[in-house]
Design brief:
Elements: H1 3-12, H2 19-31, H3 37-44, H4 53-65, E1 69-73, E2 79-83, E3 92-96, E4 102-105, H5 114-121, E5 131-134, H6 137-143
Parallel strand pairs: 3-5
Antiparallel strand pairs: 1-2, 3-4
Helix pairs in contact: 3-4
Amino acid sequence: MSADLYLSILKNKGYKLTPKRKAVIELFLQENRILAPRDVYRQLEKQIHPLGFPTVYRILEEFSLAGILIPVLSDERLLSYALCRRPQEHHHHFICHSCQRVEDVDYCGIAGAQETIEKKLGCRIDTHLFQLEGICSDCLKNKR
């Protein structure tokens, strides 16, 4: 996956393609793992001046809202992010507690219930988050 796909999504959603935003995308592509805001800040502050922690946090939140990053809560309830590999398709994610790998899940349990919920609550559901967590097959094999 290239940075161009993510940058075009941002552009289509009205975001400016700043060097800081580009650097965040490139970092997630390079690292290919879950990153906490502090990790992103520490790695980028060496190459981007000036860069403040609030700027990094704002970019991560923007990318999450745009569907480019997946918000991940740790066991300690700290927010981190992972790059979404299919940002233009509706899908969900499985996160391994052991190796932190993120896998796409093509099942959506909410989709069928959405209409029922909207009718019962008299609301309109615009989006939802369905995230599965556990131990991936590779980690399960390695525990034996």
